[in-house]
Hints:
Order of helices and strands: HEEEEHEHEEHEEEHEEHEEHHEHEEHHH
Number of strands: 17
Structural class: alpha+beta
Radius of gyration: 21 Å
Amino acid sequence: MRVYNFARDRDLEVAVRSGGHDVLGASTVDGGVVIDLGGLHAIEPHFGSGLVHIGPGARSGDVNDALQVTNHAVALGCNSLVGVGGLTLGGGLGWLLGTAGAACDQIVAARLLTADGTIRNVSAHEEPDLFWAIRGGGGNFGIVASLTYRVRDVGRIVGGWIAFPGERLVDFLRFYREYMAAAPPELVVEAIVLSPSRPIVFAIVAFSGKPELASRVLAPLIRFGPPLANEIALRPYNEFNNPGKAIGKLLQSAPAQRARKTNSPGIYWMGASFDELSGRAIEIVAERLKAAPQNWAFNVGHYMHGAVCGVSPESTPFLRSRSTMTYHFDTYWLDVKDAKRSMQWVDASLAALKPYSRRSTYVNYLGSNDPAAVRAAYGSNYERLVSLKRRYDPEDVFHRNRNIRPVP
């Protein structure tokens, strides 16, 4: 609170950082104050009540590790390095989306510092409008100091990595489209195409149903092979998406890349959503990857099905559309001279797919603060969010986000 008051007293722009993975780059600011929540990373389970209190700066992987000791988990994201605060406020899609829903669906309470300097306890019974707003409305309404989530019994699941030759990319994306359309809620598959030394298609699999059913559910994926490597097995939930030796070997950079000295390395990625992975969209992905700079990746996943789609559209700001999925293009560079070309490739790839993408993008992948894009991301919930923004942050102090602008 003291840092926030310092910034406000001096009329300094405020940015809030949880894990620092924001694709919009909104968790930093020049000439202002960054309130870094990384130090608020406590994880306090209360299994008797089925809850866990988590600081917004805690990483998803740390939460998984802390809870797996007693075979519990919270439905968070897919990337273990992402901070839970930003992830959850933007909705939060992960490995349990089909059986538990989004991360924002797991919140039962939060402590929030609002623009007027008041610390508020929010829940379904206390400040219910504000509680509604933070479950998908992003960082527009204040600074989250703690979050209380429901925990789930999740011990060992059938999951891991499987890899296929990159020349089968088009066939795999067609297969992925049909496979996920028939997938049970317990199955989540993220597909990643990388080119460490040659293009390779990787699929990360999480089947949280009964282990004895896994072989039947995963059989079509295995039959797509033969795979270059297959590490799918019964594993603890907090370990299944860690690459093993076989996948790790495939992920290694080419020798020439490993030997290069770095000069201001960087990474850039942008994403959007598909209503469907159409044949033409698949062709464009393949064309863009052929034109890619040296270090690139393409990801498609977060297929929306099961519990995440069982929530009524107005119950949270986070939109849920059955059978949609996200995608993103990534690039990184070891030398700053390669940055411009690499970033242009990502932007051009996203532009090429725009005619085949959803108008509304998953909030955590929305790389634009354009008012029309933000409005589209929230759809019919946008006007209620504007009303609450006007009430809790009329001066738009918290605007370093997918900004919901208050109106007079």
